[in-house]
Design brief:
Helix content: 25-40%
Structural class: alpha+beta
Strand content: 35-45%
Low-confidence stretches: 97-108
Largest sheet: 4 strands, antiparallel
Bound molecules: zinc ion
Shape: elongated
Radius of gyration: 34 Å
Protein name: Zinc-ribbon 15 domain-containing protein
């Protein structure tokens, strides 16, 4: 007895923003690759069909797109991620974050005027000494 069927796996290639053809919003689209494979005894053997789709996250419509478009969008996304990772300009900011901490000693000064109230007490020593 032969047990056969097919299985579809979906890969998200990219999240990209472009104008939706249905709702007209410049919404994020999930670019997906759906690979349907023929299975024999639940073992995927060879792909029956490969579909590339872009689903609008605003209205939910899913459009078939050419493979070339999907690969181009995926490449664009990977380039965009590479740019974000290659931007180490942020480390200088922690020094700015330390500035508020430097302000705390200044907040401590108002506590000192309360100490002058203690000065009359040292002055009491001579009185106690007499
Ligand atoms: Zn839409």
């Amino acid at each position: 007895m032969l047990i056969w069927g097919w299985r579809t796996r979906i890969y998200v290639l990219a999240m990209t923003t472009f104008l939706c053809g249905r709702c007209g919003n410049p919404a994020a689209h999930a670019v997906r690759k759906a690979v349907t494979k023929f299975t024999l005894f639940f073992i995927p053997l060879f792909p029956i069909s490969v579909k590339y789709t872009a689903q609008c996250t605003f209205c939910g419509i899913e459009n078939r797109i050419p493979k070339e478009d999907a690969l181009r969008l995926q490449a664009q996304e990977e380039q965009g991620q590479a740019r974000q990772q290659a931007a180490p300009g942020y480390p200088p900011h922690p020094s700015q974050g330390a500035a508020p901490q430097a302000g705390f000693p200044q907040q401590g000064y108002p506590q000192h005027p309360s100490q002058p109230q203690g000065f009359p007490q040292p002055g009491q020593f001579p009185q106690q000494g007499q």
